[in-house]
Write a structure and sequence with these properties.
Layout: H1 5-19, E1 34-38, E2 44-48, H2 53-63, E3 65-71, E4 73-75, E5 87-90, E6 92-97, E7 111-114, E8 120-122, E9 137-139, H3 145-165, E10 173-177, E11 182-187, H4 190-193, H5 197-208, E12 220-224, E13 227-231, H6 239-254, H7 257-261, H8 268-276, H9 278-287, H10 299-313, H11 319-323, E14 328-330, E15 344-347, H12 356-359, E16 367-375, E17 378-380, E18 383-385, E19 388-396, H13 397-405, E20 409-411
Antiparallel strand pairs: 1-2, 1-3, 3-14, 4-5, 6-11, 7-8, 7-9, 10-11, 10-15, 12-13, 16-19, 16-20, 17-18
The structure holds zinc ion (2 copies).
The site of one zinc ion (ZN) has 7 residues, from α3.
Length: about 425
Amino acid sequence: MKNPRKFIIQKFTEYYRDNANKIPLPTSYKKREFGFILSDKGIMLRHKAFSEPRFFRDFIKLITPSDVYHSAAYYKHPSREMGKKEWIGADLIFDIDFDHISTPCTEEHEYWTCELCDQAGVGKQPSVCSQCGGSKFKMVAWLCETCLETAKSEALKLIEFLVNDFGFPPQDVEVCFSGHRGYHIHVERDEIKQLDQDARKEIVDYVQGTGLKVSLHGLMPVSRKTGQKIIGPDLNDPGWSGKIARGVYDIIVTYNLQQLKEINGINKNIASLIFLQREKILKTWNTGNPWGSIKGIGIKTWEKLVEISVVNQAVSIDTVVTIDIHRLIRMPLTLHGKTGLKVVSIPSKSLERFDPLRDAVAFNEGTLKVYILAAHRFRIGKEIYGPYERETVKLPMAAAIYLLCKRAALLTD
Ligand SMILES: [Zn+2]
Ligand SMILES: [Zn+2]
């Protein structure tokens, strides 16, 4: 068996030879820092700057990096060391990665590789490697359709926040599939370039619903002569008020009796009452005031439902990425070293139809015979492959390269 690293570099070289000229450079690229992970050593080369697109393209063809990044920030001197760059401003960026999102399938696609030899396997890592006796392992993120779908729906939620709540024009909100586990969202507007870390943290808190006080969004008891009544936000309200209302509406529409009973802090009898009266509650949402419509459902119950609705409506993002004003982000049409898929820029309107396992495939030609150590089931394009264990299989190039990049397969002699 041959180590596949040289082969992967050769395929990446071919890709950049054919595609480097199509890679779009970001706006104001002369003011940005570029970074590359070197394929052979796995180390990061930073503080590069380019005065013309062709210099960038020639460079990428020359070094064949495994991953390519540019700064979200603009600098007076992008090629100087960090403290001497003179920061001018930065785009607003978000990272949605299924590493940060809890999905029920995470345990189903655990995968490990040995750090000392080429052993790999599905499931929990062993205590000792059966091949080399080593005890250091790396957990590998397997590309899972459910996880990717979850990441996409988080991205769609975030776009709604950015367009409807913050008022950014959709054409200024760029969405990129990262080539691996999720999406990056990137806003380029003069208004946000100067925002410091604290201001960016405020934006993070807003989209995550951190510190949200429901009474400030209109849910409260009101004294009437006829007794206590409750009022609350409307489905069409702007911002979080409307999200809260729509979130509670969704819970009432979609939760079954068991799910309602499992809500912490809601009495089982009240859960049954909500379930039995759901039609009536939903009807009043269009005609009047649902929050005060059912006797026996009090403010504490609504507050519990709102709590869950906030969690469902908030977006799971990697906080650190948005707050870091020197962050590097991946460039569209460059490859991801852990999958061999490419980073793809997607107009926000087309995100719903985007299929990462079809639309981000970079190696469309040829087949390759590989020895697969172990693999969970996976899809590339229309085909589903695996699961495999210790077998030699001839695969289309993209599927083979995916396994080689994951260190799940070796080249046959
Ligand atoms: Zn080993
Ligand atoms: Zn999954």
